[in-house]
Amino acid sequence: MTEHGSVKMAEEEQNASAEKLKEKANNYFKDKDYENAIKYYTEALELNPSNAVYYSNRSLAYLRTECYGYALVDATKALELDKNYIKGYYRRATSNMALGKFKAALKDYETVVRVRPNDKDAKMKYQECNKIVKQKAFERAIASDELKRSVVDSLDIENMTIEDDYAGPKLEDGKVTLKFMKDLMAWFKDQKKLHRKCAYQILVQVKEVLSKLPSLVEITLKETEKITICGDTHGQYYDLLNIFDLNGLPSVTNPYLFNGDFVDRGSFSVEVILTLFGFKLLYPEHFHLLRGNHETDNMNQMYGFEGEVKAKYTAQMFQLFSEVFQWLPLAQSINNKVLVMHGGLFSEDGVTLDDIRKIDRNRQPPDSGPMCDLLWSDPQPQDGRSVSKRGVSCQFGPDVTERFLDQNKLQYIVRSHEVKAEGYEVTHSGKCITVFSAPNYCDQMGNKGAYIHLRGSDLKPEFHQFNAVPHPNVKPMAYANSLMQMGMM
Amino acid sequence: MASKQPFTDSDTADEAVRATCDDASTCKRFATSKGYWTDLYVQYFVRQIGERKAPEINRGYYGRVRGMNLLIDAFLKKTRCDCQVVNLGAGLDTTFWRLKDENIMPKKFFEVDFPMIVARKIHHIKTKPPLSKPLIETHSTDSLVLDGHSLDSDRYCIIGADLRDLPALEEKLKKFQINPELPTLFLSECVLVYMTPEKSSKLLNWVAHTFPTAMFINYEQVNMNDRFGQIMIENLQRRQCNLAGVDVCQSLDSQKERFLSAGWESVKALDMMTVYSMLPREDVARIERLEFLDEKELLHQLLQHYCICWAVKDKLSLGLSQIGF
C-alpha cells in the first residue's frame, strides 16, 4: 500500500468513527441530554474537523443550553465549511436573535431566500423573523400569563409518608406551632432539610392564607403597640436568625413586616422562606409579608432560588412556590399614615390606595403599570420622574412622593429594594425611607443591615442597624448554578 | 536523591495564586458561552462551561477583556506590529490566538507563568490541533521545540518562571531571543497584587531599565481602602489567597506612582467604571441585554475596585504616550 493510500484509509476510518460519534450525539440530543450531545459532537469534530453538519448540530445543542455565544461560533464555522448549508444559516440566525443581533439574523434569512428563491419555507422564515424582530419589543410590553392549573391539585400530601429515620420537625396535627417553629429554626441552622411533606403542608396552607388577603393590607397599631419592618433578606438565613436574636422572635406582641426579596442571591433562600411562611401561619394577623421583585419567576430562574428548590426538593415544589409568591400582597398601610411596598411609587400621578387595593395580583408582574412600579421603582434625588437605570419601571422624585402622600393622606412611605451602606436611608425630606436587611450583601458589599421600629403612639421611625454574622462555608448553591465569585482574579 | 522540601507557607500561598488562573479562565469560558464576547480558543483550555457566574461578574470580565484588548491593539497598531508582547502571569490566556486570527501578531509573543501553569498550558496546546496549528503555521519548521516547562516557536513562546526571580526570568527570555531594543508591550492582569510591593517594584524597575521603548499595562485592584475592599481581602484570605501587594492598590495615584518611581516616563490610570463607560456604546447595550442585572450597585462596586494602569517609555519616540481610551 502506498503511503498516500494508507493515509487515505486512515482518514476514511476516522471519518467513519466520527459518524458513529455523531449518531451517538444525535441520540443524546433526541433524549434532550444536551450536555452529552455536545460532548459527542465535539469528539466527532476532533476526528473530522471539516464536517459542517457536526458544527451545525452542535450549534443547535448549544442553543438548547442557552450558550448563544458558542452556538453562533459553531453555526459560523459550519457555513465557513459549506456556505450552501442552509441549516447553518438558520442556526446562525437563531443564535444572532438570542444575542440581540437582529439585523444580522435578518441578513441570514435574506441570504437563504436569495439562494433558494422558490423555497416557501425560507420565505416564511424570513417573514417570521421580520415579524419577530418587530414583535420582540412589542412582547416586552405585553405580559400575558396563561391560566395555569395549580400544582396543589396534583399533590396528594395526605398520603406522603415521612420515613422512620426522619428526625426533623413535623407539623403538630397538621398545624404550625411555636414549638415547631423553634425546632425548625434550629434544624435549619444545622443545615438540615425539612421533610418535603411538611414543606408542602406549609406552602398549601400559606397559599390559602395569602390568597384571602387584599392586594393592599391595612393594619392598625394601637398606641401601645409597635411593629418591626425589615427590608430585603435575600436568602441570608443566618442574618435572619440574628434579627430574631436582636429583636426577639415574632409574636402577637412583637409583630413583623418583611418587605419582600426574601430569596435569591443568598445561599439559604429555602430556609429563609420556609421560616417566614411558618411564622405567617403561626401569627397571621401579626406577621406580614409583602412581595418583592425577587418573588417572581424571572428573578428566581436567574438568581438561584429556582435552582436551590430544585436541588433540595423538586421542580414541582418550585412551581408551588411560584404560585404562592403570586398571592403575596403588594403593599401595606399602617394606621392609614404609613405605606410600605418593596419598590416604590408610580410612573404616573393620580394612583390612589383604592387603585392598589383593586390590583389583580395573582400573576407575574407586567412590564409596566402600578403592579410593576410597586415592585420595581426607585426614588431619585431630583424632582420629576426619570427612566429607571434598571430598565424597568421608573425613578421618582420628592415632588412625586409629596403629591402621592397628599392625595392619599399619608405621612411617608417605607420601601426597600436597594442595598444601602448603612442599612437604611432617609430621603425626600423624610417622606421616603429605604430599609435593607441583608448585611454584607452577597458576602461582598460590606454594608450594614437595618430594621425599623414603628410605634402606634407616634409612628416615628426608629432605626436599628446590625452587622453580618458568620454563616456555614457552604459553597453558595453548590448543588445548583452557583453565583458566588469574588471578583476579578 | 534530593530530600523532599517541607510544605512551606509560601508554597501554600503560591498554590493559592496559581488557583486564580482557573477563576479567570472559567469566568471567561462562561461569559463567552453566553455571548459577551467571542473567544474561539478558551474552550480548548477549559473543557466544561461550568457553573453560572452572576451577571455583574460577566459584565466585569467583559469590561476587563474589552479594555485590555483596546490598549493591546492600539500598541500593535502604533508599532505596526514591529514589536514584542510579554504577558506576565498569562495563565490560560488566549490573546496570541486572537491576534493570529485578526492578523495583528507581534514579531514574537511571550507568555510567562509558574512552571506548573505553563506545563498545563503546553499540554493543552500539544493535544489540541486548534491551538497547535496556529503555532505550527507561524513556525519555520514542522515541529515545535518543547519540553515540560517551555515551548518555543518563531512567533510564540511560553516560559515557566517565577516573576520574583528576575535574573532567571531575564536569562530565559534572552534564551528565547527576546530583543530588548524592539518596542515591547508588557501585560499583567491580577498578577502584581500577589507579589509584595518590593518584589513588584523590582520587576517594574527591571522592565523599565531593560526595555527602552516599552509599555506596561496593569489590570488589578484599586480603591481598596474601603469596606468593599476589606471584605474582598477577607474573602480571599479564607481561600489562603493573600493580596501581598494590596498597599499599592489604595488609589489610582498609588497605582501610577509605582511606575513613575520605577523609572517609567509617563503613566495613566482609569478605574473600570470609567473604562466601561468609554467602551463602544452599542456593544455595551447589547451585552447588557444578555442578562438582566437585578442590583446595579453590585456592578458599580466591582468596577470601582479595579483599574487599568498603563505606563510608557518611549526612546524611539513612537508616540506611545498617545495610546489610551
Primary descriptors:
heterodimer; A: about 500 residues; Serine Threonine Protein Phosphatase 5, Tetratricopeptide repeat; 2 domains; six-stranded mixed sheet; five-stranded mixed sheet; 17 helices; globular; B: about 325 residues; nine-stranded mixed sheet; 13 helices; about 15% strand; metal-binding (chain A); magnesium (chain A); protein serine/threonine phosphatase activity (chain A); manganese (chain A)
Q: Can you walk through the features of this model?
A:
- The complex is a heterodimer of chains A (489) and B (325).
- Chain A is of the alpha/beta class.
- Chain A folds into 2 domains: 2-142, Tetratricopeptide repeat domain (Serine Threonine Protein Phosphatase 5, Tetratricopeptide repeat, Alpha Horseshoe), CATH 1.25.40; 153-486, 4-Layer Sandwich (Purple Acid Phosphatase, chain A, domain 2).
- Chain A is built from 17 helices and 14 strands.
- In chain A, helix 11 (269-282) links the parallel strand 3 and strand 4.
- In chain A, helix 5 runs antiparallel to helix 6, helix 8 (178-189) runs antiparallel to helix 11 (269-282) and helix 9 (196-211) packs parallel to helix 14.
- The longest helix of chain A is centred in the first third of the chain and has 28 residues, at 3-30.
- Chain A starts with a helix and ends in a 23-residue tail after the last strand.
- Chain B is of the alpha/beta class.
- Chain B has helices at residues 9-33, 42-45, 55-78, 95-101, 115-127, 129-137, 166-175, 197-210, 227-237, 252-260, 272-278, 281-290, 296-304; strands spanning 84-88, 108-113, 145-146, 150-152, 156-160, 184-189, 213-221, 266-271, 306-314.
- Chain B has a 9-stranded mixed beta sheet, with helices on both faces.
- In chain B, helix 1 packs across helix 3, helix 3 (55-78) runs parallel beside helix 13 (296-304) and helix 5 (115-127) packs across helix 6.
- Mean pLDDT of chain B is 93; it is low at 1-7.
- Chains A and B meet through helix 4 and helix 12 of A and helix 1, helix 3, strand 7, helix 9 and helix 12 of B.
